[in-house]
Amino acid sequence: MRRLWLLFAQTVTVCLGILFIVATLRPDWLHVSRKPAAEPTPAPAAPRSAEGAAAPLPYVSYAPAVALATPSVVNVYTSKQVRVPVVPLPNDPQLNRLFRELPGFSRRKRTTNLGSGVIVRADGYILTNYHVIESAEAIEVALSDGRQTKAKLVGADPDSDLAVLKVDLPNLTPITFNGDHHVKVGDVVLAIGNPFGVGQTTTMGIVSALGRNRLGINIYENFIQTDAAINPGNSGGALIDTQGHLVGINTAIYSENGGSLGIGFAIPSQAAHKIMEQIIATGSVTRGWLGIEPQDITPDLARAFGLSGDDGVIVATVLRNGPAGRAGIRVGDILLKINGQTVYDTIGFLNQIAPMPPGHKITLTIRRGGKTSEVEVKVGIRPRITRP
C-alpha cells in the first residue's frame, strides 16, 4: 500500500511540473480561450453639420441684451460745496454746536459724488436716484460713447428716491421698458452701472424676491431684490432682463462693509415709469394724503381692542387741520377699509392712499368703542418732505 501511494505522489508531481512548463513556454498548446475585457462605452459623438464637420456646442450669452441696453446707461457725476471743520469736533453735542458757530473753525470744500442714470426718452430725459443728485450744485453725465455734457434737474421725488435729469444731446438711445411683463423670482437679470467709478460694468444674478419693504430706505417701498452685484456708483443704473428691457432702477444694497453682499434692491420699472411721467409733466409727484400716522396692529393690540384678527391700522397721530382730522377721525380709531378694500398694514395703507387724486372723497370704515362705522374723507395733497 505504501508503494502505491509513493508512485501516485510522484506521478502527480511530474504531471504538475510538465503542465507548468507547457503553460509557461507554449500556452497555445493548452487551447485556453480568454474572454476579452469589456471595452469602455464610447462617448457620444459630437453633433455634425450637413457637411460632416463637428457643430459647436450650444452656449448661453447675454451679449445681445447688454449691447441693446448699454447705450442707454450713463454715468452721473455731481459736485457741491460743503463746510468741513478745520480740527476734529468734540463728541459733546453742545460743544459741537458751539464750535461750529465760531468764525474760522470750518472751511468750504468741494465734494464730488458719482452714480448712474438711464436714458428714458430720446429727447434727453434721464432717470436716476434722488440721493445721487441730492443738494448737487453741478451735474454732469457721461455716455457710453464717450460724450459728456452738463445736465439740469427736472424734478425729484424723495419719497421714492427717484429724480429726472435733462440733457441736450442728439442721437440718444432710450432704453426699452419691460411693459406688462411681470418679473418673477428666479428670472435672470443684469445690473449695469458705474461701480466705484471704474467705468460702465455689467453684473449678472437672479431676482431673489419681490415686494421688499420695511427696509427704512424710502417712505414708499416695493423693491425687487437681486443678487446681481450692486456697489456704490451703481445707484440709478439699469436692472435689465435677458432681452435688454428695463425691469428696475438699482437703488440700494444691504452691506456691512460698503461692498456687495448679494442683496441689492431696485425700484420696479412700472412704478418708476409712472413717477417719471409725473415729474416730466409737472416737475413733482402728487400723492394722496389723510394727515394721520398709522400704526400696525400687533396680536397684543388686537386682544386689547377685542379684534378677531390683526387686519387694519390704528390711528396713532392725527394732524388737527388735516383731511382726516376735519372729518372727525380720532387717535385710537382703527381703520379697517378704504372704499370697501381691506387695509392690512401701514405699508398697504400708504400705498392705497397715495394714488388717490387730491380732492377725491373716499369712505373709511373705522372701529371706535367696539362699534363699526363709516366716515367720508376728502383726500388732501401729501406735503413734500425735505430730507435733513
TrEMBL record:
GO terms for biological process: proteolysis. Gene3D superfamilies: 2.30.42.10, 2.40.10.120. Keywords: Hydrolase, Protease, Serine protease. The keyword Hydrolase applies. GO terms for molecular function: serine-type endopeptidase activity. InterPro entries: Chloro_Bact_Ser_Proteases (IPR051201), PDZ (IPR001478), PDZ_sf (IPR036034), Peptidase_S1_PA (IPR009003), Peptidase_S1C (IPR001940). It comes from the Bacteria. CDD domains: cpPDZ1_DegP-like. Residues 279-343 form the PDZ domain. Belongs to the peptidase S1C family. This is 2-alkenal reductase. It comes from Candidimonas nitroreducens.
